Amino acid sequence: MGWEQVLTTTYLVGEYVIKFFAVGTVPENRRPASSSAWLLLILFLPVVGLPLYWLIGSPYVHGRRYRIQAQANHILAGRSAHLPLVPEGVSPSPALTGLLHQNRQLTGMPCVDGRVRGLHDDAAETYAAMAAAVDRAERYVNVEFYIMAWDDTTDVFFSALQKAVARGVTVRLLMDHLGSRKYPDWKGFRRRLTEAGIDWHLMMPINPLEGRWRRPDLRNHRKLLMVDGEVAFVGSHNLIDPHYGSANNARIGRKWHDLSLEVSGEVVAAVEAVFATDWFIETGELVQARRPVQDPVDPGENALQIVPSGPGFPTEPNLRLFVSLIHMAHEKIAITSPYFVPDESLLAAITTASYRGVRVELFVGEQADQFLVGHAQRSYYRTLLEAGVHIYLYPAPAVLHAKYLTVDDEVAVIGSSNMDFRSFTLTYEVMLLGFGGDLVSKLQANDEQYRAVSRELTLEEWLQEPWRRRYVDNVCRLTAALM
């Protein structure tokens, strides 16, 4: 037998061993769509599929971060074990009571009181409000955002941090490494933070030269600001100009439209607990988090519950939160998400709600800023429209980046989590659930603004889409499930 035959035989045997291995291992602990996508890639292109699977395909996340998160969850549950499920002054429905119990069981986070101090959409106004909160700081400011850049729009905020340090306030800052480094003047930005005296660190850093390496598909996507334990900001804004540092975006008028919530009350302590965990993971330094208490919810206040999620939460609290909320609905659901790529359970919940007579509205951008996710999202439109879901397209070139959900007039959630596979599994996220006060009505009023400028997509219009675009949509749908 010649060398060519030996090599050919070896290759064929190896290929079948890889395929045999993949069929028996890839589906373990993985949702069906993801299993199918990985198996297709490995079976058709084993030389490409297997290395990629070993790099980013495992559904298991272990190691130091996982252990610390598990310990933190246990500590948080213990610190709030003495609190009842809900504060005095609110009476959630049986379904909502069950959801609050689920959230607490999965994350250790209690339901506490809180007041909505503002709902912020415009980027410049949002950063000005954040700066005003920092200007009032007397003891500390904690900052955690996925993307940061010190530009003309965000200067008001970073200058406020600089002035806070100068007057003796401790400023701690976390930013995602891969999330932030691709934007202009990355090196200069870090130097300015250091010169300002800000104690800053990278989240999920990848620096092999310093022995810091991790799966590049795992990111920290949270967006949080806390001041003196008195006020917190939670939402979808990143700390960057709404054109994201792109001259081309500015030229064509493409900007990101976000929504963030400013709150006070006991819920701030829960937000700080999320930050304290992330800070310890990245720095090894303990930040003293205030022990939660549960004051009565006064008229005009909300009952609020923080729901963190991410690779350290294998039970996927954000996905379970979304699915449970949708199953609760009796009259109306309104969903706003920039990247809507639901798994089987979420898609079934949404279409089932529509079939049983609930009005379901989905607000998405007319044109997505990410090719793969945008086309994957489109692949679900026919199923949604045939079920009677109302899809509102926010006009291009704007990027609708807000992330929130309301159910009936009863409950709402807002935060950093998209409704896609990445946010359910691979990125650290945080959502804020609220009921009993004015949060739901404020978000519903924001829906009216989106509805006024959006156009509704009809099934008749969608059926006219050319087959070439539908083909690309379906291919991208497979790639979106590769996790």
From TrEMBL:
Cross-referenced Pfam families: PLDc_2, PLDc_N
Membrane association type: Multi-pass membrane protein
SMART domains assigned to the protein according to its UniProt record, in alphabetical order: PLDc
Record's keyword terms, sorted: Cell membrane, Lipid biosynthesis, Lipid metabolism, Membrane, Phospholipid biosynthesis, Phospholipid metabolism, Repeat, Transferase, Transmembrane, Transmembrane helix
Location of this chain's protein in the cell: Cell membrane
Transmembrane domains' residue ranges: 37-56
EC primary class: transferase
Domain named PLD phosphodiesterase: residues: 216-243, 396-423
UniProt xrefs under PROSITE patterns: PLD
Keyword Lipid biosynthesis: yes
InterPro entries with a match to the protein in the record: Cardiolipin_synthase, CLS_N, PLD-like_dom, PLipase_D/transphosphatidylase
EC number: 2.7.8.-
Gene3D superfamilies assigned: Endonuclease Chain A
Primary location recorded for the protein, binned into one broad class: membrane
GO molecular function, one term: transferase activity
PANTHER family (alphabetical): CARDIOLIPIN SYNTHASE, PHOSPHOLIPASE D
NCBIfam families linked: bac_cardiolipin
Identification of the protein by name: Cardiolipin synthase
Organism in which the protein naturally occurs: Kineosporia succinea
